[in-house]
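EI: anyone free to look at a 146-residue chain?
SC: sure, send it
EI:
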Amino acid sequence: MPEASPRGTYLLIAEALRQGIREAGGADLPSEAALMREHRVSRNTIRRALRVLQTEGLVSSVPGAGWRASSKPIRPLIDRIIDLIDEDSLAVGDAFPSEAKLCERLDASRSAVRRALAQMEGTGMLGTRHGKGRTLLALPTSPEEP
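SC: here you go
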């Protein structure tokens, strides 16, 4: 990072990220830690820069996955997990994929996957049996069309 006023550093970083997003055509952003090392600034400075881009609609924060350019459709993790039910042709009573497999397939953190699975268990879609893993108890319902 070139020498800059501490007050404007986050704006310079935001501009560099903005330009990088344009050049990369909407590729995912590096992690906050990688950006901290690259620009030699604190996490707060990086987050301020990212919030500027978020306000502009250029990036979105995806829990468990980091920051992504907004040109890609960003869907909640639970929706992506529910899509797997259809993709894998799961039926009521079938074993549900393990947390590790879901993390790998969805490129998400284990804690984010666990939160989504807990939400699905709370709605009665999944059940857990000690030593047996998760089982699909109900198929997702489609939203009513007008």
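EI: The chain is about 45% helix and 10% strand.
SC: 👍
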